[in-house]
Model the fold of this input.
Amino acid sequence: MSTTIANHYLLTKRAGLAASTGKALTARACTVRLFEAGIWPLWTATRNRRRIAGGDHVAVYLAGNGLSCMAGLATVAIVERWSSRHLAHYPLVLDGTPEAVLRLSDTTLFNVPVPAKPMLGALDLFAGGVPLKWGVYFMGGCRAISEHDFDVLTGRASTRRGDVVFEAGETHRQGFAEQQQEHSDHA
Done:
């Protein structure tokens, strides 16, 4: 009997258009619709589209228009080849033809998107230091990441940064508080 080890991926979402109305949607609103439909497309040029499999874990990163936030997480139930039956239930306007579709389970959408920048120093990805243009590392639609980085980005990890220890979820609570403070400062 073989044991399958789940892999971890970062899915990137940008703004899009609602399929039913053509109305512009934010990256978060697109993510909400995809999570509600339980699907996520993988395009022909999407990195890792052939590696990702059922049982793998995904975290959603919102990008574009000044966004750099974590929005939620899910488990990949199965990966299917894209077909016309997916189109009938796809909630967004397509800007091409997907190659495959992830069927998602155990979806969790964060109440408030969590800024990614405060977590970067705790990631294995940036063990040598956070580069000035760190957002480039999150591009490509589907980036493989370590389990540790997944746990940090989704608030599941206890991580040590300098003299500060962030317990599970603490990074996200701080992100929520900082974001809410910024909004009240600008109101």
